[in-house]
Amino acid sequence: MNDLQLLALVRKDNGLAFQEIYNRYWRVLYNSAYQKLQSAPLAEEMVQETFLNLYVKRDTVQVSDSLSPYLHSVLKNKVIDEIRKQISSKKYQDTLSVQPPVTAISSHDLLEEKEVKEKIIEFSETLPKRCREVFLMKQQDLSNKMIAEMLQISEKTVEGHISYARKLLRSYMTELYLYSLIFLISYIPY
Description:
Number of helices: 8
Order of helices and strands: HHHHHHHH
Domain RNA polymerase sigma-70 region: 21-86
Number of strands: 0
Shape: elongated
Family: Belongs to the sigma-70 factor family. ECF subfamily.
Number of domains: 2
Mean pLDDT: 82
Protein name: Sigma-70 family RNA polymerase sigma factor
CATH superfamily of the largest domain: Winged helix-like DNA-binding domain superfamily/Winged helix DNA-binding domain
Pfam family, one: Sigma70_r4_2
Distance between the termini: 84 Å
CATH topology of the largest domain: Arc Repressor Mutant, subunit A
Strand content: under 5%
Domain RNA polymerase sigma factor 70 region 4 type: 119-169
CATH architecture of the largest domain: Orthogonal Bundle
């Protein structure tokens, strides 16, 4: 049976058809996840979540002739989310181990840092979707090569997105600085 026939049976809650799809794709999906995550338990979890996604969305999944592109796309997104989660967790743990005691940080410093982060997030929302993805991943200290692999684009394309985002960020921050300066000058008493 081909994938479309199996999917039609899965939509009718045929467990054997779902098992056939699982047997057909689990190894290649596992290898792909393991290659990116370098962890057998995480790779297994990502593959299981990919098949769970297929089962939950079985009535709405649209495929032309093969489930492979759909399954790989779902897996890719799950792997990217996992890597982002790991990076965030690692950065958080790193900051905890390096940060001075809370009493040494003034509330003014915290407010400035929060404002800068908000402005960068605000700025990132102005970028085109793919450029925003690359920009935010670069903010997480991922290499251009890793970003290219995760998004399945060339390293040159990653470099182009980063260059474009940095150019726009400089312009955005300069404009923001000028507006802030004008605001301050207009409120300074003579």
